[in-house]
Amino acid sequence: MKRREFLTGAAVAAAATLVNPLKALSFPTVFPHGTTIYQPEKCWNGFTVFGTEVESEGTVLIDMNGNVVKQWKDIGQAEHPPKMLKGGYLAGAKRPAPDKKGRVWDDPYSTDLVVVDWNDKVVRNIPRAGMHHDYQFEGNPVGYHAPGMPVDNYKGNILVLSHKFVHNQFISDKELYDDYIAEVDADGKVVWDWLASEHFDEMNFPLDFKKTMYKYPTFSMTRTPGRKGGDWIHVNAASYLGPNKWWDEDKEKYAVFNPENIIISCRQTNTSFIIDKKTKKVLWQVGPEFYRDSMWEFGGKQYKRALSKLGQIIGQHHTHMIPKGLPGGGNIMVYDNGGYAGYGKRNPGAPEGWSDARRDYSRVIEFDPCTLKVVWEHSAKQMGMRNKYQFYSDYVSSAQRLPNGNTLITNGAVGQFQEVTPDHEIVWEYISPYYTANGKYNLVYRAYRVPYDYVPQLKKPTEIKVTPPDNTTFRIKAG
């Protein structure tokens, strides 16, 4: 079954059984937007940048009180993610023409990946990059601020996640919308690349998993006009490991954690991989199975039940290694969405076996990449909520570790950003007011917090505490 068919079918079913579908929603239909919680003394204060997913609105930069301090309407027009660079520069996808919104490498219908200065002048351009979901700048492994590794080198190499249309009979008999990673130098030359389908044999997938994938490789229409493809693996994050404690401790024992190696998140297969930069081979894999008898091996040692204790990861986003210099540096952090993903045997919830893994809540997990031991987890349960679905984004989303130990979380499906402490207190919250005209949703793929000094063109704003009302006594006046 195609993903779009599933979503459309679910919407049609809901509409057919309800006179007013809106009344059936299990979450509030009236709630505040903008900054709804803010405790300045507990936050790592700065500006926050995000793409609105609304073509006419593009990318927005806000202060801690939710005030818009800058907007770029032609960067990130429903393409993601935009990133703020030190000096007041912005990077993101730009359409050469309104119809050119493709995500295929070097295709005439694809977007450009650009860097613009504060005055919107393009200072770097990778034409027809077709970037989707992620890219990284030389000198910073993950695209967000870390001490000693600011995001500022737009003139160096850039790692770009894109697509290519390919055929691979071992994966499916249908054309694939394959994930392609290219590293481009300052002259625009590709100096390294990686195509996912070429490494299918290095990925440890069960037989039933591969059989279902062959029949239903998430085949759907792409953003390239008239082209369908199997988005079989759906990579949604790609970053360098960067400098880390493992490599510093023992380069032979922890060779897999070479700072140049690349870690990727594969949503549809419920897997994350580390790719050897030199050989291009897959060296490290988590998922797709997390059963009690699933065995995790690392460094010649077996860790029984390590995968089951980590817990089933479904449809995850933003798998990355926390950069050195930040609390938790060297650990892996993942926004584990839940929702639906994977391939396997058919069951009542997945009659074709497509997206057979399902769960109706999300969590952010931080774990040791050697043992898979969970170091920190954030979810509704950790916040003391009774219902796990109270922390839930079934797609998109991200998590950024901040220098003070807090974590900025993007619950993207509902346009919600939360800065939470290690003890799970929400000290800042913002709800995006940017809704699509037709879909009536305020999706945000990924938000980033940057220090104030990344934007020297602006003065440090006044930080005003925001205390939310007691929801049990808050009323909207009639009339």
From TrEMBL:
Coiled coil: none
Sorted UniProt keywords: Signal
Keyword Cell wall biogenesis/degradation applies: no
InterPro entries: Arylsulfate_ST, Arylsulfotransferase_bact
Signal peptide range: 1-24
Protein name in the entry: Aryl-sulfate sulfotransferase
Species name: Pseudodesulfovibrio karagichevae
